């Protein structure tokens, strides 16, 4: 009995120390900001389910899935490159050079991507649903704002300005949330789309104003190839890797929209995915805290693995508790919050929640590879995962309809645990060997 008592006391001490560390590194500041971003992205889903039809909710999710891919293409991996390079022990001038270069490249690419998407939507090429194509001609205008905002967010994150980041993000996304809800109430689906475009444009202008001192050399700064070679290479690799990651999370929605005619079921699925996406902010925020600390130790693999081990343990405790709690309360909360008609979302939710849990188990290793500049490990993992996901989606959607997409998603994330581990060990062994010869 004494042994059991000692173990319980040690567990309480570990948990208390864990939460003290979590608070000290700004986890809750970043988490609160990310939760508001998620809310603003769907602009008060709870209220939208009252004012938009189930079919419109599903249509909106398809638009968001496509746009997430367009934003990644337009960013060209500059967000990841800035996050990794600015988190290193670089000079202030060099960090500023990385920021200005990243903004320039992302801005030019985002304008080009927006024009191309508008043309494709106009000729009915984006979707086999004319309503989606019509809405996309307006919704695609949000791409430049989202791209620049994403670059600025990671810049602050790399500099460990977590409190500033959370304040700016919460304030700006709260504006998007409120105006979006008002627009949906009075002007319905199309009004909501227009409000998202306009409010995101205004909020990114506010963000640019905050970093105006860092942008004063925007038109004068020249790219020095000695610094830019590694920066651009990292960005291109990260772009492909991030694209694979985004496809992994959105290809199911896109395939469902093409392979089934169950428009209302897609709406139920979208609500389930919204809740899981909001929950994903927790492990994503936790991962985001890791990046600067690992990047600082990127030349010391022993220290990197030590940091990773601590964060993986904390992630496991955190996500196990959250998964169990949410699993118990969701059958009560979901119908109460969204309405009885959305009770059909619960079946989808459990499969998607399992996928989130599996993802949280391996994602710290992916973040570690990115933080030490070895993004090729994530790239290889992404290729395998996307191939598995597409194959499983095709099989399960044909067999089980929209539910098949949820089954395919959770199964893919489970398989990816082992794929990710294989490439992580390969990258770490390679890094250790290379450092021995330096």
TrEMBL record:
It holds the Pfam family Polysacc_synt. The keyword Nucleus does not apply. Its main location: membrane. Keywords: Cell membrane, Membrane, Transmembrane, Transmembrane helix. The chain crosses the membrane at residues 21-42, 62-84, 96-121, 141-158, 170-187, 193-211, 231-259, 271-294, 315-336, 348-367, 379-397, 403-424. It is found in: Cell membrane. CDD domains: MATE_Wzx_like. GO terms for cellular component: plasma membrane. It comes from Bacillus cereus. This is Uncharacterized protein. It is a multi-pass membrane protein. The keyword Cell membrane applies.
């Amino acid at each position: 009995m004494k042994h059991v008592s000692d173990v319980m006391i040690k567990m309480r001490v570990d948990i208390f120390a864990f939460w003290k560390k979590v608070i000290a590194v700004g986890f809750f500041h970043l988490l609160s900001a990310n939760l508001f971003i998620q809310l603003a992205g769907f602009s008060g889903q709870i209220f939208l389910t009252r004012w938009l039809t189930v079919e419109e909710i599903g249509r909106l999710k398809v638009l968001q899935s496509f746009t997430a891919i367009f934003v990644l293409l337009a960013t060209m991996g500059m967000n990841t490159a800035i996050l990794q390079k600015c988190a290193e022990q670089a000079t202030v001038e060099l960090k500023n050079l990385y920021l200005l270069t990243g903004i320039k490249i992302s801005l030019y690419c985002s304008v080009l991507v927006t024009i191309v998407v508008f043309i494709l939507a106009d000729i009915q090429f984006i979707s086999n649903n004319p309503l989606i194509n019509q809405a996309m001609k307006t919704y695609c205008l949000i791409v430049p704002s989202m791209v620049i905002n994403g670059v600025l967010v990671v810049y602050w994150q790399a500099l460990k300005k977590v409190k500033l980041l959370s304040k700016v993000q919460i304030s700006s996304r709260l504006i998007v949330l409120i105006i979006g809800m008002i627009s949906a109430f009075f002007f319905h689906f199309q009004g909501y789309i227009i409000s998202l475009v306009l409010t995101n444009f205004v909020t990114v202008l506010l963000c640019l104003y905050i970093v105006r001192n860092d942008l004063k050399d925007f038109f004068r700064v020249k790219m020095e190839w000695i610094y830019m070679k590694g920066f651009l290479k990292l960005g291109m690799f990260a772009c492909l890797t991030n694209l694979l990651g985004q496809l992994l999370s959105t290809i199911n929605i896109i395939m469902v929209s093409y392979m089934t005619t169950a428009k209302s079921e897609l709406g139920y699925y979208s609500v389930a995915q919204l809740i899981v996406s909001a929950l994903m902010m927790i492990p994503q925020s936790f991962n985001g805290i890791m990046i600067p600390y690992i990047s600082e130790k990127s030349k010391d693999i022993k220290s990197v693995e030590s940091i990773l081990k601590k964060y993986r343990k904390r992630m496991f405790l955190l996500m196990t508790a959250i998964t169990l709690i949410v699993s118990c309360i969701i059958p009560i909360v979901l119908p109460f919050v969204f309405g009885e008609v959305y009770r059909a979302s619960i079946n989808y939710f459990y499969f998607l929640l399992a996928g989130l849990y599996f993802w949280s188990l391996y994602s710290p290793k992916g973040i570690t590879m990115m933080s030490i500049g070895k993004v090729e490990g994530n790239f290889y993992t992404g290729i395998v995962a996307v191939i598995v996901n597409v194959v499983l989606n095709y099989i399960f959607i044909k067999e089980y309809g929209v539910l098949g997409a949820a089954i395919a998603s959770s199964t893919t994330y489970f398989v990816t645990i082992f794929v990710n581990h294989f490439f992580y060990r390969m990258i770490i062994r390679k890094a250790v060997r290379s450092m021995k010869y330096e």
